[in-house]
Amino acid sequence: MALFELHNRNLAQEQVAHTHDFHQLILATCGVTELSMEGQGERVTARRGCLIPSSRHHEFQGDGSNRTLVLDIPVAQLALLEKGDEIERLFDKPRFFSVPPALNQLTHALANQLEQCPALQNEIAILLLRALTMYLHDATPATVTQLGQHCISERLDLARLDAWLDQHLADEIRVEQLAALCALSPGHFHSCFRELTGVTPLAYVQRRRLEHARTLVRHSALSLGHIAMLVGFRDQGSFSRAYRRYFELSPSSDR
Hints:
InterPro entries: AraC_XylS_family_regulators (IPR050204), Homeodomain-like_sf (IPR009057), HTH-like (IPR037923), HTH_AraC (IPR018060). The chain is α+β, with helices and mostly antiparallel strands. The chain has helices at residues 84-90, 101-116, 121-138, 158-167, 175-181, 186-197, 201-219, 224-230, 236-247, 251-254, and strands at residues 5-9, 16-18, 22-30, 33-37, 40-44, 48-52, 58-62, 67-74, 95-98, 144-146.
């Protein structure tokens, strides 16, 4: 008889809101699922997992292309396990946690094993839970986010934001656009971004503009006015003033 219910699912693009009388572990191998518990939302991705205690209300909506490992754990069944008390402590409160590469690789391997041998779901589930217990036991506080605390760096994909910024430096860039790329409200995005980078989003954009401009100043024959336009300044004067403040020398001197 199965102690647990373990499924490899594709969570659809429809919003679901419910509670259930079992604990639930959610790990993704690809794609994104927006999930909210007790007023705080995050994205479940290959880099971010979620623990949902029994009877906690939550809402979720997949992107339609995710592959998500969902483990349902009846509370009564934990008493039957040798280290059930350790697993129970995983679910003492709802939480999101970062997924390191080793745990992500294990998730991929176990998801594939489940596809090939569904009858082994108990063994696969126990292995997954024990691996997660060991990881979270050794994790630093910065790797685990309990609800009500500040967001952590994994909430934002800086590489994706940087790539988008580099394609739009000549344009007006608003915080609302950046927040939309991360599926966050502007206010939540602003606080997460500042916690991660130590600067506001607009200050980060300005820095990105100027660092790109410096490359053009030093390694191209473009006029300073043209460079100013390419990185989003309205005129050469405002560009030169910002450049001098940031690099402590004028663009003409740097050239």
